[in-house]
Amino acid sequence: MSRSVAVLIASLAGITMVLSKFLVPLGDAEVKVADWFNVLAAIAFVLGGANLLKMNLLAISARGPGWGYSAVTLVAFLVTLGVGVLKAGVPPAAAFPDVPFSGEKDVAGSALWWLYEYAMSPITGTLFAMLAFYVASAAFRAFRAKNAAAIFLLATAFVVLLGRTYAGVLATSWIPHDNAWVSWLRLENLSAVIMSVFTNAGTRAMIIGIAIGVAATSLKIMLGLDRSYLGGTR
Amino acid sequence: MSHGAHAPSLVDRIDRIDRRWIFLAMFLAVAVPILWVGVTGRTFPETPTPAVQGAFDALESLPPGSKVAISMDFDPASAGELQPMATAIVRHCAMRGHSICAMTLWPAGGPIVDATLKDVLGGRPEYRYGENYVSLGFQAGNEGVMKQVNADMAAAFPTDARRTPLADLPVMKGIRRITDFDLLVSVSAGYPGAKEWVQFTVSATLTSGKPLRFVAGSTGVQTPQLIPYYPTQMAGILGAIKGAAEYEFLVNDAVRRADPAASIPARFQEAQRRMAPQLFGHVLMIALIILGNVVFFARRARGVQA
Amino acid sequence: MSALPPGAELDPAVVRRATRLWLVVLAIFGGLLVLRSVIGTELGTGDAARTVHGYGLVFVEPAGQGFAEVPASAWADAMAKDPAQDRITLSVPRTAGVWVAAILTLAVLSFLWRDNPAYKLAESIVVGVSAGYVMSVAVWDTLVPKLVGALAPGLTKAHLMPALDVSAPDWWALVPLALGFLLLCRLAERTSWLGTFPLAFVVGTFSGWKFVQYVESDLLAQVATMFDPLWVPGPTAAATVGGTLCAVLVLVGVLTVLAYFFFSLEHRGPLGGAARVGIWYLMITFGASFGFTVMGRIALLAARCEFLFDRWLWLIDPAGNH
């Protein structure tokens, strides 16, 4: 019964959103539904935080290996949430000095800003920066020109890698840039041609194919034919 | 080592090299040029590509005082690539005297919006908050926010980031929906970002009476996915740090043409500085790929399984 | 350095040697940091120039309701004019922040050597701080104005968001409130089935939006571009030939890649030939994508290196921060 109600909700919501594109009176409904969607998205963040709390509390109480790190995560989460929601270190807005919570939550100098600037930003930035090392290691270990297609791929990669830096400009600076019949062979121009012609074509075809697939899947969901999003719940 | 086994050859030793040597090589390829550029202040010249020139022309061709919406859809993890783009675009808008309405769809993007506006506009007394620039901050919902701003900006952003109702802000006068802006810019690291803006906001306007002009800045990973939208659905793309460097070059060149004696502050050449480590990093990548293949084929020629 | 064979266990003597090596490395690193301090940095200009033996320092001056960062050389100049001035001062929280950020950056980078407690600690911190930050943002930027403000505008304006422009309650906000409550029921095993309804709402809404937007933007608009003229006249013969050739190559590319992804028919005959051409286009596409991906990753590493060398160690000053 609950699955049928859920499928009905999904169908009604989806079909309404499709019809609102074509029926002007439904335009306001679309804005209202979008508002509900956005509030729900924000509540999903709350759900994520609560789930983090639950999982780490379970890990700490189980005292399994590495439970100390769960405690660190928990403390970091609660401290950040506390200073963020309570706006620690945030002065009231100048226009409303009598309302303590009227200031911006992450104004420069506040506790939340400090955690964002000096804890969250450097760690997330460094985590992503590490990928440069792994891509270098992967390039050495895995990229093998075993067949013609792989050679094509690597040759294109070389052209783009060189063409997008000054190395490419230097390498083909001997090719005259004012002779349009040959200037496209300069690496910086060749990489632009590769992007605007071949990458454009390949990606466009994939975009068209994906669009057809998304349209089909969305239709199946709206018609109740695809219920995989309900999972195995009763 | 068993009796009679051969000592590993150079090819075998290279094949079995610890990957931490490769990590060290990559670190040096990036760190040494950073130090060199930091000490000498020298950067490589840039030649703008058509997609970047298109983005520059889209902003440059707007009459002064036009209204530009900038969505900075990235977080600190991608700021290394995208912050120079955002800075250059806001600076270009300031040079042209455009009004700026900045927002973000990423939860960690709020401070980035504030910092960018402060860094670029803080030294310009003609720019006053609320009068000709505003930060709307963040709203949750991704495409839901786009759907709302298509119809009613105030429905998506009841207040700006400083909690002032939009109706009380002079800069938002005459703006009811996002299509009332003269140009939309998205500096995006992924989802939600430029692709979603094209799908949910820009494309619908192309067949209406007033197409919304759109320019995107994106990370290297996302740039190939946005190429098909150029030039019909977007006027220009700034692709990766190279695109940022080219755009910076165009903006700085415009400053010098207007005033040959003008000096360009170093903080407005951030992307150009980062092209030096790019060069050496890319050369290292090519060398590693070639070396890996040389080793592979040498071992295969000897009949050793890979 | 050589990699260990899989499954091998470390000899205790090797572990002791590795620990001693680590202590030596840390001692050398600490020594370099002390040496950096001894060398110092010259701040200020002209007569105001002075050598400061610290680094990673942040100076601020009052601005509005808080403080704004100023270059360290501005502090040196101010001190030279008036040693008793207290307008530009050292910010202890921000200076501590720069050092904490540097240590956390090095802790994450230490994973490149091997997994270790420092990396695990940094990882735990970022998970907790990120979740807390995102939740705080969701509460103040969306839930307070759009949920609390909609249902209790008086309370919101009095205590939370005085500038909110709402006078009467909007009872439609009870819908997302109810859906949100059902969503939170997913936390408990017994009530998790209630979360199906808000999930269905989200999936259904999303499907409706995606159906329209993907068809409009990615299908119709992209197919429409394929009907652009193949003959592209230009100002010169070379431009005309080049433009026309590019247009033809794009058309051929799109059709052949689509042929490759069409699996309903066996790839034989003309379809097979077209699919083989499509593979070449895809190889070029992926090669270019790889090149761009490398570009992106290296830029991120360059940014972190800049932070360490500029903001922390004060070895370089490209942006005039100090």
Strand content of chain B: 5-15%
Mean pLDDT over the residues of chain A: 92
- As residue ranges, the low-confidence spans of chain B are none
What is the number of domains of chain B? 2
Can you characterise this structure?
The complex is a heterotrimer of chains A (234), B (306) and C (322). Chain A has 234 residues and is mostly helical. Helices cover 71% and strands 0% of the residues of chain A. Chain A has a domain of 92 residues. The radius of gyration of chain A is 27 Å and the shape is extended. By secondary structure, chain B is α/β, with parallel strands linked by helices. Chain B folds into 2 domains: 51 residues; 222 residues, Rossmann fold (3-Layer(aba) Sandwich). Chain B is built from 12 helices and 6 strands. Chain C is mainly alpha-helical and 322 residues long. Among the domains of chain C are: 91 residues, no CATH class; 84 residues, no CATH class. Chain C is 65% helix and 6% strand. Chain C is built from 9 helices and 5 strands, in the order αββββαβααααααα. A 3-stranded antiparallel β-sheet of chain C has the order 4-3-5. A two-stranded antiparallel sheet of chain C has the order 1-2. Classes of the chains: A mainly alpha (234), B alpha/beta (306), C mainly alpha (322). The interface between B and C is large, with 70 and 59 residues.
Topology record:
The complex is a heterotrimer of chains A (234), B (306) and C (322).
Chain A: H1 2-22, H2 27-62, H3 67-85, H4 111-142, H5 148-163, H6 166-171, H7 187-222
Chain B: H1 10-15, H2 19-40, H3 50-60, E1 67-73, H4 79-96, E2 99-104, H5 110-121, E3 133-138, H6 143-151, H7 153-156, E4 183-188, H8 194-206, E5 213-218, H9 223-226, E6 236-239, H10 240-258, H11 270-273, H12 275-301
Parallel strand pairs in B: 1-2, 1-4, 2-3, 4-5, 5-6
Helix pairs in contact in B: 2-12, 3-10, 4-5, 4-10, 6-8
Chain C: H1 12-39, E1 41-43, E2 50-52, E3 59-63, E4 66-70, H2 72-81, E5 89-90, H3 92-109, H4 117-151, H5 153-160, H6 174-184, H7 196-225, H8 237-260, H9 269-312
Antiparallel strand pairs in C: 1-2, 3-4, 3-5
Helix pairs in contact in C: 3-4, 3-9, 4-5, 6-7, 8-9
Tags for this entry?
heterotrimer; B: 306 residues; alpha/beta; Rossmann fold; 6-stranded parallel beta sheet; 12 helices; 11% strand; elongated; C: 322 residues; mainly alpha; two-stranded antiparallel ribbon; 9 helices; 5 strands
